[in-house]
Design a protein that fits this description.
heterodimer, A: 224 residues, alpha/beta, Rossmann fold, Arc Repressor Mutant, subunit A, 2 domains, six-stranded parallel β-sheet, 11 helices, 56% helix, disordered N terminus, B: 398 residues, alpha+beta, Heat Shock Protein 90, five-stranded mixed β-sheet, 13 helices, 5 strands
């Protein structure tokens, strides 16, 4: 997979984003630390270029003309599962975020993120780890706590995929409070690597859980 | 050694001992109870330690406050006539063991009065919420179980008294000293009665004074949150006349609403009925007035109670503090609704401070956050160190 990043080289980045100003901003913020190998501002072009150039990480805007970020994920991942996606958005609407994660993105961050944090997130995704913004961590905690409430009532059984372990819950809670992975590790006296593996495991549950509650939760939230 | 405020059943002395010595707290507790049942000495030691050892987050002990509490000492002295009466009646009736226990009971009552009156605000709230319901089988309410317990306890004591009277004395002989005892009691009531009455009146007026002081504190917190904050903002934007006018006008509106319509200023939480709504209002107000981005993450939602409104007001104050002092462009606010409480964290990555260095008269933390939370039984933890940013943790029972 992301050999160049893992081997210490600069990760090769592809930007999918329909705001030119924002694209330029991201380029400037990431600077020389990464190699930007392409840009696209709509779904069809993005799919074609990504499949052709095979970047390490795609920075993907959730809201995109022509089907949204999910459409890009569906156009690339079946052919090239080794490409990692990091979703970016301003909106924070839960249904968008959950949908793009379940379509295969390795992480989600808001556009207010600082340059340094963005770079760290890119490296993390390039290395195959998951990246959760505080907002996403909050969504996941909320969704899973509601699932366990309705789940145990309606079916009486919760598979391992449908609930968070106490440790995962603790990690997510600290991330939701605005802690970095390093600070989470220090607070729980565990290794940063362990934090990363907990977050990855949560991401896997988020992507693989078949519970309808997860999607229903996200759409319900739009009404509130 | 300090008394522990986390690991406590009564005063936190075993918890403190365990922290000081490293022995497991449960072992210490069992030991205390066993030796206490056998000899009674640890009970006295425990009570004295309660007076003398300060709680881990305080600097003064209860004793240093109690020696200045003249009214409390007078109250304790007022119990002495009761003991004397008991002694006289007891010696008249020749039932020795009641006499033996009356002095320890007196000391226990006296210590309880002094501890209760001189415990810190936080400890008193704790005793009120956790200890009193546990002890007070007698105070009304409660279920049937409590009633049965109360009646049987009363019956037991009554029966014991009757048995003692009958066994100790043939019926005729008992009547005469009883009459005498009644006379003595009547005399003492006549002598001390007015004094007790005036003490009771003092207590009432003291309670009123305390309520008044509490109201003042709430008002001070409101004024601080609105007027003083706005004045600080105006000073900062002195070179922007338009902004000054805008701030002054909105403050004027708020003050009018407070004085003439009774709506508390700065209390954003009054317009909302749900927690999520209140947090959203808080975010908008602080972002508009103080130029800081508030990143909100909320897990769950619930109806707002008075306590949760206070929580929101305290959270707003914490966020405003982050905007004013931290220098960070963004603060994170995380709130989670748990089954029995709401936890709320306000965090910034700014310059931070040393919580021990904040003078007590700084209204922001003392009144607007800590006292406000304590009034509704909530708790505050502030974590900060220079260069590390600040996190304010608020928790409020639902």
């Amino acid at each position: 997979m992301s050999d160049s990043a893992a081997g210490g080289g600069r990760p090769r980045i592809f930007l999918v984003e329909d705001h030119t100003v924002f694209r330029a901003g991201v380029r400037a913020e990431l600077g020389d630390a990464v190699e930007v190998i392409g840009e696209a501002d709509e779904v069809a072009a993005a799919i074609e270029l990504i499949n052709e150039r095979l970047p390490d990480v795609v920075l993907l805007d959730v809201h995109l003309p022509g089907g949204g970020g999910q459409a890009v994920l569906r156009g690339v991942l079946p052919h090239h599962p080794e490409v990692q996606f990091l979703a970016l958005s301003v909106s924070d609407a839960p249904e968008d975020v959950i949908a793009v994660i379940r379509a295969g993105a390795r992480g989600y961050i808001t556009k207010t993120i600082s340059g340094g944090e963005l770079l760290q997130a890119v490296y993390r995704v390039a290395a195959g780890d998951a990246v959760f913004s505080p907002r996403l961590a909050g969504f996941v905690l909320d969704a899973f706590s509601q699932m366990s409430m309705t789940g145990t009532l309606s079916t009486g059984l919760d598979t391992e995929l449908d609930q968070l372990s106490p440790r995962e819950r603790e990690v997510l809670r600290l991330i939701a409070r605005g802690y970095t992975y390093k600070e989470v590790a220090r607070d729980l006296t565990i290794a940063t690597k362990t934090v990363e593996s907990h977050v990855s495991s949560v991401l896997r549950k988020l992507q693989l859980s078949t519970r309808h509650e997860l999607t229903r939760w996200a759409t319900d939230r739009r009404l509130v | 050694m300090r008394r522990s405020s986390d690991a406590r059943v009564l005063a936190g002395i075993c918890g403190g001992l365990s922290q000081a010595t490293g022995i497991d707290v449960t072992i210490l507790r069992i030991g205390f109870v066993l030796v206490g049942l056998a000899s009674g000495v640890p009970v006295l030691v425990y009570a004295l330690a309660w007076l003398v050892v300060p709680v881990d987050d305080e600097t003064t002990n209860i004793f240093s406050r109690a020696i200045n509490d003249r009214r409390g000492i007078r109250l304790v002295i007022a119990v002495i006539p009761v003991v004397v009466v008991t002694q006289i009646v007891v010696s008249a009736l020749h039932i020795g063991f009641v006499g033996i226990i009356s002095w320890p009971v007196f000391f226990a009552v006296g210590l309880t009065i002094l501890i209760w009156r001189n415990a810190s605000e936080a400890e008193r709230v704790w005793m009120n919420d956790d200890l009193v319901p546990m002890l007070s089988i007698g105070s009304g309410g409660g279920g049937r179980g409590k009633l049965i317990l109360r009646v049987s306890a009363g019956a037991l004591v009554g029966a014991g008294g009757i048995v003692v009277l009958i066994i100790g004395h043939p019926s005729t002989a008992a009547l005469r000293p009883l009459g005498g005892a009644l006379l003595v009691i009547a005399a003492i009531v006549i002598i001390f009665g007015p004094w007790w009455l005036s003490l009771a009146r003092d207590l009432m007026s003291e309670r009123e004074a305390r309520a008044l002081a509490e109201e003042r504190a709430q008002m001070a917190a409101h004024v601080h949150d609105s007027v003083l904050q706005t004045l600080a903002l105006i000073q900062r934007s002195a070179d922007d006349p338009q902004n000054v006018v805008r701030l002054a006008r909105s403050q004027e509106r708020e003050l009018r609403a407070w004085l003439f319509e009774g709506r508390a200023p700065g209390a954003i939480s009054e317009d909302a009925t749900m927690l999520a709504e209140g947090v959203g209002l808080l975010q908008r107000h602080v972002e508009a007035d103080h130029g800081i981005t508030v990143q909100v993450v909320l897990v769950g939602d619930c109806d707002l109670t008075d306590g949760l409104r206070a929580l929101l007001d305290a959270a707003r104050e914490a966020t405003v503090n982050a905007a004013k002092w931290s220098g960070a462009p963004q603060a994170s606010l995380y709130a989670e609704v748990e089954p029995h409480a709401v936890m709320l964290y306000v965090r910034d990555r700014g310059r931070g401070f040393d919580p021990d260095d904040v003078p007590d008269d700084r209204q922001g933390i003392a009144q607007s956050i800590k006292a406000r939370m304590a009034r509704y039984g909530g708790a505050v933890v502030i974590r900060s160190s220079p260069g590390e940013g600040t996190e304010v943790e608020l928790s409020m029972p639902r």
